[in-house]
Amino acid sequence: MTALLLGALGLTLSLVVPGILATARWPGRAPAAAVALWQSVTLTGVLCALGVVLAAPQELVSELGSDRPVGAAALLLALAVAAVIIVRLLVSLARVTLRSRARRARHRLLVDLLDSVEQHGELPAEVPAGLRVLDGPLPFAYCLPGRSPRVVLSDGALRVLDTAQVAAVIAHEQAHLRHRHDLVMESFTAFYRAVPWPLRSRAPLDAVHLLLEMVADDAARRRCGAAPLRTALALLGDAVSPDSPAEFGGAAAERRHRLDRLAAAEPRAVTRTVSLLAIGGAVGLLVLPTVILVVPWLDRALSAWPL
Ligand SMILES: [Zn+2]
What we know:
The chain has helices spanning 2-23, 31-64, 68-114, 155-160, 163-178, 181-194, 203-224, 226-237, 252-263, 268-304; strands at residues 131-134, 141-144, 150-154. It is mainly alpha-helical.
C-alpha cells in the first residue's frame, strides 16, 4: 500500500502539479517562496520514486509470502535500482555544474579582454568591481556568476539608458549574483536531464527561470524604484534575442509578464501571506509523506525483512 500511495504521489508531483503551478498567477506575488515550493515538489518527487523502488519489492514479497532467498534478491534489486537513480542524479548535477563553470570561465576571460569600462564616464557613481562594458550597438546586459562574478553591459545599453536605469539594471544583475540564482537553475537543469523522457517536463525549468527574474526585479525595485527598472526592461528587452533567456530582458512573453508585475505594487501583507502559505506548502510536502507513509513502512519493513 505504501508503494502504491508513494507512486501515486510521485506521479502527481511530476505530471500534474508542474502544469498547475506553472500556469498559476500567485507565484508572481511571492517568487522566492514559489521557487522553494518548486524545489520541494521536485525533491519530494525524487523521494517518492526512491520510496516506491524500496517499498514495492518488500510489499510484494510479504503479499505473496515468498521465502528468504526471494526476499533477499528483491531487496538487492531494490537497492540497486535506488542506487542507479541517485547516481544518475549526481552524475547529471556534476556534468551540468562542470560544463557551466568551464563555459563561464572562458566567457569571463573574453569580457575581461574586450572590456572598455574606463572609457565610459556616464556610468552611475557606484559601479560594482566586476562591471565590464562591451563595445557594440546592441543594447544588452547580463551577468556571469561564480567566484569572481561579472556584470556585463553593452555600449549600446549605456547609450539608450539613463544613469538611473543603468543602476536598476546593475542592481537586477547583482541580485542574481548575490543570491546565486545560477546554482538554483543548475540544480533544476540537472534534474531535468536526469529524468527519463516520459516523465520529463520543461515546466519547472521555465517557471523557476521566470521566478528568479522576478526575485531579481524585486531586489532592483527596492533599491532603485520601479520606474527606471520598467523602462530599462522595455528598452533592453527588444534588442535581446528570444533564445537567450539568461540575459536581462529575455523572451517576449516573459518580459511582458515582468513589466505588468512591475506596474502594480502588491501590498506587503498580501506578499507576506502568499509567501508563508507557499513555504508552509513546501515544508509540508517534504515532511508529510515521510511521516505518514515512510516511517510506518520502515518500521514494518525492518521487522519483516529476511536479513
Ligand atoms: Zn535577470
